[in-house]
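Form 7-S
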Amino acid sequence: MISRVDTINLANMSALSETVYVPSAPQVKSDIASLLSSKLSAGEDGQWKITTFQTTPLISTYIIAWANGPFRHLEESYSSPLSGKTRPLRIYTTPDLIHQARFALDVNRRVLPLYEQVFDIEYPLPKLDLLVATDFTIGAMENWGLITGRTSAFLLDPHQADLSGKKYVASTVCHEVAHMWFGNITTMEWWDTVYLKEGFARLLGETIILDRLFPEWKLRPAFITSELVAAMTLDAKASSHPIEVECLDANVANQIFDALSYDKAATILRMLSQYVTEEKFLKGVSIYLKKHLYGNAVTKDLWQGIAEASGLDIPEIMDNWVKKIGFPVVHVTEVDGGIRVRQDRFLETGPAVPEDNETIWSIPLSLLTIDGSGNTFIDHTVLLDEREKVISLDISRLFKLNAGTVSMYRVLYSPERLAKIAEEAAKEDSILSLGDRLGLASDALELAKAGYSLLSSTLNFYKILHAENDYQMWSCISSGLSSISSVWFEQPDIVEALNTFSRSLLIPVVKRLGIEYADGEDINTRQLRTVTIGQAARAGDGSVIADLVRLFNRAIETEDDSCIYPDLISTTYWTAVRYGGRKEYDAVEAVASKPPTPQMGNAAMRALGASTDRSLQEETWKFITTRARDQDLYYFFAGLQGNHAARRFLAEKFKTDYDVLYKRTASNFRLQRLVQYSFEALSSEMDYEETKAFFKDKDTSTFKMSLDQALDSIKARAAWVKRSSEDLRQWLASRT
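Output:
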């Protein structure tokens, strides 16, 4: 690599040599000398250098990287638990950001030996660097030996970091380091099995291995409300696709980096791990990797490795999960001496017609039962591998399918049985785990959306859980209430009644915890405060809003961001813009323009979409089209989409400026998500027809999947409004 002498050169491998260019030096190759001689200006002798790097192992071209810039770095090292060899680990940034790089480097140092132990394969390169890029198309990229990523993926200010930012950086680092094995040392044969790297990096990097580094974060149940819900949300659409999808050109390849290749893949692998046991699963993964070192692999190679470790017929269990579209809902009917369970494909629009309901999945049911002494037992071996079957059990006692919510299916109980399970879930000493309770809450919402149950039943379930004390449950409930309000966003009487209900659940928790954060508080208390204050502000609670505005004004007056607790930055910025005016908007815009930290910048960009003032919404759109970096467009679009008063404004602006946005973003992943943000949250049949008509004469080849999914979302939301409005109004009216 040829560069200025005062800059840093980086590549996948370590540098072998670095010399200042001298025209007469005999070691300079003639082609390099000729190139430099043609570029040098008078007096530039001694200002260029030549860096030669070690040769890489056999490597895929998509993970090759090199970089040059005025970088600074922090350095650590780790010793391989397999060989004892010590390798340097560095993180590179521009000089102004280096003070925020320590946490990512520490995570890298801690996680590398864990991966070596789990896979029984030593990291093969001589070093592993992280490089922070100011503007980056995606979150991060697993370039072998030189992992690259945007600022929010790797930077964390130790004095201004909230837990969500810390989690994001840690999970990104662990995800990308997982790729050093999944994708780099063993590579999928073609992009149709991209899940072989992305599903594993999601599951191992962001849950199983990260949980070993930070057990206090309770990442295993958190998987349910992030990865599992994301997978089911997309896979419940008619426009979904199998995990393993035919990939004939680059347009398709770019579009399958979605919640199916990542989250559904991680979900079914997690399900398989539970079924065969995690120990045997990881052993099988190690066998798979070792058999395909520096080579390519396909799905059957993975199944063979896990089959060898477990002694089970893995393809028989797993093939339909990978090769077929969708996932099932299991209907539970109580009969003499047990239950009859039946599987059908779950669609967000309602029961599937016969031609869409042909797949039979092998479903690990994970059946939880209770014996006469009150002891719980979970049978992980029960498979539903036919359309329906009868299972013997004592139905006079509590039972629950999908214990821990590990398998990818929804469960439809009778209203009477669900009431008994909900009663148990609401107990302070419930035998149902956090994972069970999260799964029940998720099912309650989505089954109502698809018309399998009443929406009023979902709200009653939320009400029963009012004494819940785990922040993940409150996050799930808050998300559910926001989702319902979002669907009925143009019916203000329903939105306000839902907000009133939300406040009735949240305010007792907020009053008990207060708005002050104390040193030494446990994570659950801090996050419970963060979640409930955030939702209470969005539900319009005057006292909470006043407290947040007070914190914001103090920060503006003193020019000291530390006046705002890091965990409340997002909510405080949003509240200031939502309930303030030009002064508050300008203050948040200043943060978005020149953010002190990536997390604060992201929060500010989202918050700029929160105003109900059309002139300020126009200001935000002007920021998007003239000042926002391409990598940050998502944050602005998400903020506008989440604002009921700006949602149609966003859709119309996208249409008006479509040609500009297309030219700016069609060549990368961004346009796909911008299409979804702009249209997926609309809720009428007219919206569906108008959106479809708008794109009719457009070249949608680079974002067709995203467009189809957005159209399906509109259709499902419109059907939900039509189906459930009367039930919802009656339930809300009964509370007054």
